[in-house]
């Protein structure tokens, strides 16, 4: 959990570039002693699965290091605030680093266990969003409660029936292709009727109602039942600049394959393209971000998003935002049954948040002929490997417990958080000011 001087310097340079601290790190000046306004931040970090870090002795704006006069007293006071202001008290580990002779104090706050959430400050639960702390909404609190249940037992919201739905609201072509793929992949069911097949795979129930998974994957217009099953995409400009905040705002509707195809095509249209000569001498257009990585990230956001009532009825949808530094994809719901560290690992087994939807998505194909989901847990490996081959930084992965964000850095426009943060502390989720999106 400990930082090095080099990691701290790299992180501060990252903040100067982005003119902000980040989701998992809070920077405080500490002039005049221990800041007295950290209770909400400590609480918000305690409610994050991987916690967060407070840095004291650095001034905003500019992130200049001026240090603190009595680092020992600051460390003690920081630990005391975590112990006395937050209930239940999170574990905190403190240290002091010296940059150019100036003492900087760091404190890493561990997230409390799922069954202990939400942690409270002055009786109120806080959530970390972008670089700020906010009181949890009623829907956020319900998602925390759902997360507790997921820690004890699986909740398959995608199997729930959708009242008023039936096969007539499905996209006929997508449905036909899905039935053929399901039958082909299951020899024992090749003689089953279409109706039997669809009921066995929980696309419909015994009354002929579509499940949430069946509607989302195969429906002609699932958003007619659940408006939040869409994707919002936009190019976003920094706050404080004159002119529009966004451009090329577009929303995508339809079943899962259409959502993924539409959003990937939007990204392709809005990122830069280089002209590169291949080894055969032919000139080719090469997108600045590998489209296979973009497709995997968007497909995962669509398929693994939370489908519970706390999301579908609360205006929570998948967002795609393109900034000058990065492409940011955010989906409702935190990680379930897997950690950020495991996503980075080379030996990754498939974990389905929505098992019925996941199964269907392994049988559905996109416009380019690829399956929506590979189905072997290798999607994130494709993301990391394709970015590496393109000479780009690894992605930033941030799990706040109620939403999950993946940031793909554009060439030369951001810092590598994997190098900028200590391994085991915030190495996978250090920088994400783009969560303002």
TrEMBL record:
Residue ranges annotated for the Schlafen AlbA-2 domain, each copy included: 22-135
InterPro entries, per the entry: RecG_C_sf, Schlafen_AlbA_2_dom, Schlafen_AlbA_2_dom_sf
UniProt-annotated stretches for the region Disordered: 415-437
Protein name, UniProt field: Schlafen AlbA-2 domain-containing protein
Originating organism: Corynebacterium hiratae
């Amino acid at each position: 959990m400990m930082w090095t001087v080099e990691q701290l310097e790299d992180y501060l340079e990252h903040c100067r570039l982005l003119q902000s601290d980040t989701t998992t790190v809070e920077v405080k000046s500490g002039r005049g002693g221990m800041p007295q306004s950290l209770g909400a931040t400590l609480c918000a970090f305690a409610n994050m699965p991987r916690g967060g870090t407070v840095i004291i002795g650095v001034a905003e704006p500019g992130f200049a290091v001026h240090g603190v006069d009595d680092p020992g007293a600051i460390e003690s006071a920081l630990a005391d605030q975590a112990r006395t202001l937050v209930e239940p008290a999170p574990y905190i580990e403190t240290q002091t680093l010296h940059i150019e002779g100036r003492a900087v104090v760091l404190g890493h706050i561990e997230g409390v266990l799922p069954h202990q959430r939400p942690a409270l400050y002055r009786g109120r639960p806080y959530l970390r969003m972008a670089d700020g702390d906010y009181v949890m909404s009623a829907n956020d609190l319900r998602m925390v409660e759902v997360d507790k249940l997921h820690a004890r037992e699986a909740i398959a919201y995608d199997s729930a029936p959708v009242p008023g739905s039936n096969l007539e609201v499905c996209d006929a072509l997508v449905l036909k292709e899905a039935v053929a793929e399901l039958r082909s992949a299951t020899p024992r069911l090749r003689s089953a009727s279409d109706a039997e097949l669809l009921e066995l795979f929980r696309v419909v129930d015994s009354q002929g109602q579509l499940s949430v998974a069946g509607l989302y994957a195969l429906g002609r217009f699932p958003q007619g039942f659940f408006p939040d099953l869409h994707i919002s995409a936009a190019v976003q400009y920094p706050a404080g600049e004159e002119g529009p905040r966004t451009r090329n705002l577009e929303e995508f509707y339809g079943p899962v394959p259409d959502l993924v195809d539409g959003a990937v095509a939007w990204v392709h249209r809005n990122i830069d393209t280089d002209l590169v000569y291949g080894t055969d001498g032919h000139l080719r257009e090469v997108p600045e971000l590998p489209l296979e990585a973009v497709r995997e990230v968007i497909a995962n956001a669509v398929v693994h998003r939370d489908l519970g009532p706390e999301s579908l009825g609360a205006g929570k949808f998948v967002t795609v935002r393109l900034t000058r530094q990065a492409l940011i994809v955010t989906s409702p719901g935190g990680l379930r049954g897997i950690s950020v560290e495991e996503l980075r690992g080379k030996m990754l087994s498939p974990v389905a948040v929505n098992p019925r939807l996941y199964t269907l998505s392994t049988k559905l194909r996109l416009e380019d002929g690829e399956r929506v989901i590979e189905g072997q847990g290798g999607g994130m490996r494709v993301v990391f490997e394709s970015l590496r081959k393109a000479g780009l930084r690894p992605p930033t992965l941030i799990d706040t417990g109620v939403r999950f964000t993946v940031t793909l850095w554009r060439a030369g426009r951001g810092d590598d958080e994997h190098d900028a943060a200590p391994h085991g502390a915030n190495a996978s989720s250090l920088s994400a000011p783009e969560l303002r999106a």
